[in-house]
Amino acid sequence: MAGWWWPAGVVGPWFAGEIPVVVAAEPGESGTGREPGAFGALHAPDSSESELKPPAVAFTAPYGIAMLVLLFIAFFAMTRYDVPLPLAMSLVACAFLAMQGRFAPVILRSGFMHFSDIAILFTAVGIPAHMIERSQGFKWIAAWFGYQFGKIRLSRPRLANPLLVAGILFATWLIAALMHNVTSILIMTPIVIRLCDSFGVPSRWILCGTLIASNLGGFSTKWGDTPNIIEAATWGLSAKDFFVEVMPANVIVLAGLTAAVAWLTQRSLARLPSGVSPYGSFKTIDIAKGAAGWAEARENIEFDRRLFWGGFGSLALFVVLHVVFDDWKICIGALTILVAVLIDRGPDRFATIKSLGYDVYLAFAAIFVLAGCFEHSWVGEQLREQIVKTGAAPWAIAITGYLGTMFTEAASWATAASAQIYGLGAEPLSIEAARTHAAAWALGGGICAGSSSLVTAASAGIILVEESGRFRDERHAITFRKYLPFGLVASLLMLVFYATWFTFMG
Amino acid sequence: MSHEPVPTTGPAPSAAERAAQLRNHESRFLKALKLLLETGKAKTTDDLIRYASQDNQSESVNYLRTIAGENLPVELAFDALSVNLRLIAHKRNSSVLQECLKRQVGLVMPLPPHVIDAFVSLMPVSILQPDGHHLPHAAEESGATLVRGNRAAREVLGGLNAIVFEVFSDEGEFLVDGEIADLLATKFIDAGTMLIAHLRPHQNPDDVALRVAAGRIQKI
Hints:
The structure holds 2 protein chains of 2 kinds. Chain A is mainly alpha-helical. Chain A is 70% helix and 1% strand. Chain A has helices at 47-50, 61-81, 85-99, 104-134, 137-155, 157-178, 181-199, 204-220, 226-235, 239-270, 284-300, 305-324, 329-343, 349-353, 357-375, 378-389, 394-407, 411-415, 417-423, 437-451, 459-469, 480-505; strands spanning 276-277, 280-281. In chain A, a hairpin with a 2-residue loop joins β1 (276-277) and β2. Mean pLDDT of chain A is 80; it is low at 1-45. Chain B has 9 helices and 8 strands. Chain B has helices at residues 15-21, 26-38, 45-54, 58-68, 74-100, 113-120, 137-140, 150-157, 178-183, and strands spanning 105-108, 125-129, 145-148, 162-170, 173-177, 194-199, 207-209, 217-219. In chain B, strands 1, 2, 3, 4, 5, 6, 7 and 8 form an 8-stranded mixed sheet that branches. In chain B, α7 (137-140) links the parallel β2 (125-129) and β3 (145-148). The longest helix of chain B is centred in the middle third of the chain and has 27 residues, at 74-100. Chain B starts with 14 loop residues before the first helix and ends with a strand. At the A-B interface, α5, α7 and α11 of A face α2 of B.
């Protein structure tokens, strides 16, 4: 899958990574109680469209199963045959639209109206992130960290490995929170492998931990992961809501994850004889040479300060203003794009505004069309029934999110629940719990835990497998089997934590 | 009558001057020893000998042994070794640059800025940018001939007789980026071409073994 995003740099693939199958409000339906920003409320159909209804066959089981089979085939093609995600998703979206018959234009317009907000907001994050990446800023910081870690490893060996684990997991979490979880994995995987290789530290548990840290970071901010965007739009959540109501829970999980990964790494090292690392004989001089190598790497980097500070400043501007003035987000996003592009050098500006790449926008458009199609189908109805039975309890929403994510490609399936759950608050069911933030967070928590269960459950996992497998040393490669025991245990603990936390916090 | 100094443009930099700016592969070993001194892991000259020996630095081991009997403080022994290794590196790199002055030189990206500067300021060079590699600003602004893409680079390679590129040394094996390995396939390169390698500190994900006899490669 690596090929399709490289032209746009490592920040290119972002949000195309997952298949949120979120759902629109019933087009033309009045009195749904949708808040501004909810998916369906964005579309005001004209009188002729309001008379259109989805075909009756869409609410039959064979139709819904056919949709799921198509989605599964796309997922299989992406993982098995490296079919680019935008291609697979676009084709599935076209197939779904064709299946909708005369109702297709309604879904298409709803999806694209929602897509327009996303195009501005993600471009506003994507351009500065791409500038930071091009500045070699991440590599420079990693080289600085590598050198400092080497010094600590020599002077205080007991402290070194827990610090390494904490530093890596925190950096992964932070990059995912500020940018996107897929970006975070792309940036951090080679850095982790080089750090572990330089200092003879087993990489397995740390790499497994980075996948969960990236999911946690993604779940911590409004723009950190695709499901958040959908939930934010459906429930009308602001960036501040994420900051205040979700981030503390995720920081607690991150602390627990860090402790577990540090312990597992230490245990792996303790099983090896003295002077031996997982990669062969390893002596004190090798640690010193590892540190010296990082110092040399830093000297060799052509660090572009203008790009780095320009990108960092624009990103900070966007994040802070977006959190404080949520109603002005489109204005702030547009301003960020303008500032960032003007800061860049003249000849690079055209390339800068295309940072995310056509592929990402294409995938996004497809994702929103898919979401609309699922809404008006048997799949959406089934999901709604299951949640109704439990009265939209946070624990039930979290479990649905976990299982849905685990057994489909990514947060996709669970994200399909967003508008369905929110819609339960409207007449005739009027389930108030479905309209609370706790319902949104429970869904997000379930998706986050589900994304961490298997490497195939989220795009970040697939990328981790690919990136770690590109190194010559197979010991760094994270495979489905290598990740499975860690992922299952950690994700189940996360699920229990989120279900409990959001039930009581709600 | 007073003689006013006549403003002149400075002399062109010599190979020796540029060699002094070129970071050499010995510097990593020296930095490592310095870290061992700073963190208290190396307290005597014997410790330095032990660490040098663990790293298979036979020249350094021999040199340190010659001064071990003089009961020098360990810092002084390190300084002496440092000067000795830097002299060796300087002479070698000067000689490489001097030899390159007589040749058609190609720099295959990626290379760190100090390597690009050293060659570009001394001689006309071609900078080869294989597919998928970024061209640093130092290269773009150098005034050197830029050759972009593998196809164009292959066409130019036949006319070069000194090629500078980056490698990672892994237990005696040289690893290079896959695209560069393709470029350096022997069918494109004349047997008399000098192959000059700058050692990078870390392995890259797409590295492959370089299929060129190790004896042909001149490290800088």
